[in-house]
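[Structure tokenization] protein backbone as discrete codes

[Encoding] learned vocabulary of local backbone shapes

[Begin record] amino acids and matching fold tokens:

___
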Amino acid sequence: MAVWALIGFMGCGKSSIGRTAAKMLGVAFIDLDEEIVRRCGKSIPEIFSAIGEAGFRAIERETLAELLSRKGKAQLPSDILLSLGGGTLTDEGSRELVKKNCKCIYLRATVETLAANLRWEGEAASRPMLAGADPKAPAESPDSLESRIASMMAARGPVYEKAADIILDIDGLDYSDVARQILNCFSGK
């Protein structure tokens, strides 16, 4: 199987779905954001605050490169389901690493689903790239969470689609349903 990467916007459930799917597949699961936090000893918001997005993307690219270079060696299993951060593919170096080393599954969702998930999980406030968005503002408001997501998705959506080997539309599905779809992708069903 090699390395499969879950890609998609914040709030699509890459980590939760990935853990469930990896367990079903019997493969290793790695969350790139969690690996960065472990290595740096700081949360993602703390890293962003200290060194900005460009600094974070450099650490993300370095961590990704190291993980992928160890593929198949004793420290890391050869079969991996890897959850990438929502902005990982916005960095050209990371995008090239992923293209060269991974097959990608894009967990595609509408702005409404993403906003609902981020509100429900209470995650919007802890996402540096959503800073300034008001999760309580009406969806049509320019400072709403929906507006911020729509703006970012206008740029990121095409990047995700271009990188994707498989696109799974996740609107209206719970995470275990999506994990089963991933399992079906691997089993050829």
